[in-house]
Amino acid sequence: MDKNDVTFLKTGTTTVGIICKDVVILAADKRATAGNLIVIKDTEKVFSVMGNMGITTAGTVSDIQLTVKYLKAELNLKEVRTGRKPTVKEAATLLSGMNYTNIRQMGGICQFLFAGYDNKGPQLFDIYPDGSITNISADVGFVASGSGSVFAFGVLEDSWKKDMTEEQGVELAFRAVNAALQRDTASGEGIDVLVIDKNGAKKILHKVLSKKLN
Q: Which CATH class is domain 9-186?
């Protein structure tokens, strides 16, 4: 491929993952854009998967939707075939393989933060559009993706500490995404927060931000 034919991806969103004591937290904004146009103001970018896992999404909406459907179907089939639920690492590895195939065969662009809780405790993975996967260890503790991640990282670097409580982690996730909402034009409208622990995944915050004029 000629270098002049290469285009660069600009992912318009803000997603955050945080490892706390006995819990992992995912958060994202709610704005979907097409260039400079705000297309959707209440889009879902945080999903639960198989009860004890969850993902955040960034990239091309159609590719994301199809990939998430395939992921859920494949994980359910794997459970039926093996007689047990897939581990968090197995599920994350499966998703990274889908991304690897997607970008090479169909040109799809998706980035996911994948989190879950199993017998190894809370786990967090960053899955890149090219299919590569990074395990975010408990000593690192956090990750962010999307165009607003540069603002979120500043908050996370300053405030994250190991063995944070769930309450502290949720508050930090909110502040990190909210910082991006203040400066990144591709992120906005609200914040969703998903908490995953030994009891499963639950969305504990759905905050819509509105600036309508009276």
A: alpha beta
